[in-house]
C-alpha cells in the first residue's frame, strides 16, 4: 500500500509539473502575442427577428498561433486572468473595436450593426485605471460610448456588489450599454438582476442548446425572458443554432438572437456582406 501511495505521489506531481510547464509556456506565448498585437477580434452579429435585420455584434478575441494554430479563448482567458495579462488583452480588444468603429462604422451601419459588445473579465472592471483607460481610448478614436456595450458576468458582480454597481453606474452615466452575460449559470437569483444597472440580459447557451427537446430548459428560458421583460430589460439569446430554437424563443417574447443559425463569429470584412433573410 505504501509503494502504491508513493507511486501515486510521483504520478500526481508529474502531471502537475507538466501542467505548470504548459501554463508557463502559454503565458509566455500569450504575453508575446499581446505585445505583437497578434490577437485579432472577430464579430458575431446579433439578429433582431422583429426588425428582420442585424442590430449589434459581439467582439470575440481570436488567437492564431504560428506553431499551434487556433487557440480557443476558453484555453487562454483563464490564464490571462490569473497572470494579470487580461488588462492588456482587454485594452487590445477594445482598441481594435474602436478602430473597427472608426474605420468601418459606416459599412457596419449599412448592414444594420450600430454598436459592438465587448466582454469584460473579473479584475478588469475593478482595476484602478480601467475607467480612465476606457475613456481615453474612446476619445482617441472619437468613438461615442453609445456604440459600446460591456458584457459582464454574474460571478464578477457578486464578488463586490456595491463597488460593482458604482463602477457600472459610472459607465452607464457616460452612455455605455451594459449586459449581464451567461445569465442563469451563476449563483445569483433573478432578484439580483434588479440591483445592477444593466440594459440587457443574455441567456446562456446552456439553456438554449437542448431546446426544443428539453422541457426544463424551455421552462427556464421562458422564466428568464418573462422576468427580464417585467424588469424592462432587453434580452439576447446566445447560441441559437436552429430555426426551432429561434421560433420557440420568439414565441416567448425574445426578439434578439445570437448564434450559428444566424451568423458565426467572423472577421470584420465578412460582416460587410451580411444579408438578413431568414423568413
Ligand atoms: P461568451 O461571452 O459566452 O461568448 C459566446 C461564445 O459562444 C463564443 O465562444 C461564441 O463563439 C460561441 N457561440 C456563439 N454562437 C454559438 C452557437 O450557435 N453554437 C455554439 N456552440 N457556440 C456559439 P468563444 O468565441 O470561443 O469564446 C468563449 C468565451 O471566451 C466567451 O464566452 C467569453 O467568456 C470569453 N471571451 C471571448 N473573447 C473575449 C474577450 O475579448 N475578453 C474576455 N474577457 N473574454 C472573452
Ligand atoms: Ca459574452
Ligand atoms: Ca455564454
Ligand atoms: Ca462566458
Biggest beta-sheet profile: 8 strands, mixed, barrel
Helix-strand string = HEEEHHEHEHHEEHHEHEH
From the N-terminal CA to the C-terminal CA, the straight-line distance is 67 Å
Structural class: alpha/beta
Helix content: 40-55%
Record field, number of beta strands: 9
Oligomer: single chain
Number of helices: 10
Strand content: 15-25%
Q: Stretches where pLDDT falls below 50 for ≥5 residues?
A: none
- Rg to the nearest angstrom? 20 Å
Overall, the morphology is: globular
Protein name: EAL domain-containing protein
Domain EAL: 23-279
Organism: Catenovulum sediminis
Could you characterize the architecture of this molecule?
The protein is an alpha/beta fold and 279 residues long. Helices cover 48% and strands 19% of the residues. The chain is built from 10 helices and 9 strands. The radius of gyration is 20 Å and the shape is globular. The relative contact order is 0.13. The mean pLDDT is 92. Residues 23-279 form the EAL domain. Keywords: Membrane, Transmembrane, Transmembrane helix. This is EAL domain-containing protein.
What is the topological layout?
Blueprint: H1 2-35, E1 39-48, E2 53-65, E3 69-71, H2 73-83, H3 86-110, E4 116-119, H4 130-140, E5 148-153, H5 154-159, H6 161-174, E6 177-183, E7 200-203, H7 205-208, H8 215-230, E8 234-237, H9 243-252, E9 256-257, H10 268-271
Parallel strand pairs: 2-4, 4-5, 5-6, 6-7, 7-8, 8-9
Antiparallel strand pairs: 1-2, 1-9, 2-3
Helix pairs in contact: 1-2, 3-4
Amino acid at each position: 500500500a505504501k509503494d502504491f501511495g508513493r507511486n501515486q505521489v510521483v504520478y500526481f506531481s508529474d502531471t502537475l509539473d507538466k501542467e505548470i510547464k504548459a501554463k508557463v509556456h502559454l503565458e509566455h506565448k500569450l504575453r508575446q502575442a499581446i505585445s505583437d498585437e497578434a490577437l485579432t477580434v472577430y464579430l458575431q452579429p446579433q439578429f433582431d427577428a422583429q426588425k428582420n435585420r442585424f442590430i449589434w455584434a459581439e467582439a470575440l478575441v481570436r488567437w492564431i498561433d504560428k506553431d499551434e494554430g487556433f487557440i480557443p479563448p476558453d484555453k487562454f482567458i483563464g490564464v490571462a486572468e490569473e497572470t494579470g495579462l487580461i488588462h492588456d488583452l482587454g485594452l487590445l480588444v477594445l482598441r481594435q473595436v474602436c478602430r473597427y468603429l472608426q474605420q468601418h462604422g459606416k459599412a457596419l451601419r449599412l448592414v444594420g450593426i450600430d454598436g459592438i459588445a465587448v466582454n469584460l473579465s473579473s479584475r478588469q472592471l475593478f482595476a484602478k485605471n480601467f475607467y480612465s483607460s476606457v475613456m481615453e481610448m474612446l476619445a482617441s478614436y472619437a468613438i461615442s460610448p453609445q456604440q459600446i456595450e460591456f458584457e459582464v458576468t454574474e460571478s464578477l458582480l457578486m464578488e463586490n456588489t456595491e463597488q460593482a454597481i458604482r463602477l457600472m453606474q459610472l459607465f452607464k452615466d457616460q452612455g455605455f450599454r451594459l449586459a449581464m452575460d451567461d445569465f442563469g449559470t451563476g449563483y445569483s437569483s433573478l432578484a439580483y438582476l434588479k440591483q445592477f444597472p444593466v440594459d440587457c440580459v443574455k441567456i446562456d447557451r446552456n439553456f438554449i442548446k437542448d431546446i426544443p427537446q428539453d422541457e426544463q430548459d424551455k421552462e427556464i428560458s421562458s422564466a428568464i425572458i418573462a422576468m427580464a421583460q417585467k424588469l424592462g430589460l432587453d434580452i439576447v439569446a446566445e447560441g441559437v443554432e436552429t430555426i426551432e430554437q429561434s421560433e420557440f424563443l420568439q414565441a416567448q417574447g425574445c426578439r434578439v438572437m445570437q448564434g450559428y443559425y444566424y451568423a458565426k463569429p467572423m472577421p470584420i470584412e465578412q460582416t460587410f456582406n451580411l444579408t438578413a433573410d431568414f423568413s
